[in-house]
Amino acid sequence: MRVVVCGGGVIGAATAYYLVKAGATPTVIERSGVACGASGKSGGFLALDWCDGSALEPLARRSFALHGQLAAAMPDRWGYRPVTTLHLHHDAGRSGASHRPTGLPDWLSPATIPSQRLGTPETTAAIDPAAFTRGLLEAAIAAGGSLLEATVGDLVRSSDGRVTGVVADDETIPADAVVIAMGPWSNLLNALELPRVHALEGTSLVFQLQDGPTEPVAFFVDYQGVDGTRDSPEVVARADGTVYVSGLSAQPPLPADPAAVSPVPATTDRLLAMVEAFAPGLGRSPILARQACFRPVLRDGLPLIGPIPGAPGAFVATGHSVWGMLNAPATGELVADLVQGHSPGIDPAPFAVDRRGLG
Ligand SMILES: Cc1cc2nc3c(=O)[nH]c(=O)nc-3n(C[C@H](O)[C@H](O)[C@H](O)COP(=O)(O)OP(=O)(O)OC[C@H]3O[C@@H](n4cnc5c(N)ncnc54)[C@H](O)[C@@H]3O)c2cc1C
């Protein structure tokens, strides 16, 4: 079965990986570079049970288990490591303790105080998101899939309305099924009536620690500035000795071209000033990346996964919001089942395109 997967983010890569495992032949079509969007610029933080109690619970729990299996099957490819996750508090207006609590990295300020343990190495983990996305796609290609660098502009349909391929850079690519996995750009194919996929921007910095990797930790920081403003930066210490910090969400217009997404200097400066306050040792480290990206979000916060009504042969997988890196593996597995007509291991109904409340 020939399947065209539109979009080379983590959802497209995971879909291709599980399609090829199920015996299909996927071609991923990517416009601007594999993992060029949120999939390469996210935290890569994973949690077993943070989606419990919501419709995401089965997808998240299955995905967390698959992340462990994928890392074991392809070791040392994307820096998978279990982490301890803490909630920290930093009040920039108060001088804190003069001694840092034991067990915390020396780049944190002594005034940055742990307030709660949010996860253990059994329940939380971290990956390098770009390496994970590329790793899954490379594995899919090694097993018979392919990557085409082109811009998907339209769908090809037969006289009965069935989707039989895509038009990419004026070339027609025939397919038995098409999966739209273009993240926040998934609405750009006007031929499909999909619910509105919103795009929320996040800004991040990547620092290079001079003394090598720090202990495996992730932090969610409650930051209070000297002027009383509050922010919630997230910090992930990675296996390769880099530390990722994100925060300061916004909703500017989404550039039509993914390659045109770039950070606002005033926002990266603000994030850096926060880091210099709550983690001065980190703030003095070389900065490898100042970046922004957009995550795809549906009105009800749940992803959109499944067949597209009125367009037989077409499927969608997008809208994973803040949990796309976590939920990519089980999403890929689910899409592979749906495309091939197999009975899925996870109930897709909460993610259906025509569910209520998407407006
Ligand atoms: C700041 C930030 C931090 C995050 N941290 C985490 C985290 O710690 N853990 C977690 O689980 N999730 C996290 N997320 C969420 C996660 O990054 C996203 O949910 C996920 O990356 C979305 O993947 P995607 O494949 O749907 O979209 P994208 O990564 O946006 O990929 C879509 C791809 O489609 C391509 N494309 C677009 N138009 C076309 C076209 N016409 N033709 C061909 N290709 C096209 C784009 O170039 C792009 O590569 C974070 C998100 C943000 C913004």
In short:
With 359 residues, the chain is α+β, with helices and mostly antiparallel strands. The protein is built from 7 helices and 20 strands.
Report on this model:
The mean pLDDT is 94. This protein has helices at 10-21, 38-41, 57-73, 129-142, 265-278, 280-283, 324-340, and strands at 2-6, 25-30, 45-47, 81-82, 84-91, 112-119, 124-126, 146-149, 152-157, 163-168, 171-174, 177-180, 198-208, 217-224, 230-231, 234-237, 242-250, 287-297, 304-307, 314-318. The chain folds into 2 domains: 2-75 and 127-196 and 298-351, FAD/NAD(P)-binding domain (3-Layer(bba) Sandwich), CATH 3.50.50; 84-120 and 199-296, 2-Layer Sandwich (D-Amino Acid Oxidase, Chain A, domain 2), CATH 3.30.9. It is of the alpha+beta class and 359 residues long. The strands form 4 sheets. Strands 5, 6, 13, 14, 15, 16, 17 and 18 form an 8-stranded mixed β-sheet that branches. The relative contact order is 0.22. Flavin-adenine dinucleotide is lined by residues 6-12, 29-32, 36-39, 42-45, 151-152, 181-185, 188, 202, 204, 246, 258, 293, 295-296, 318, 320-326.
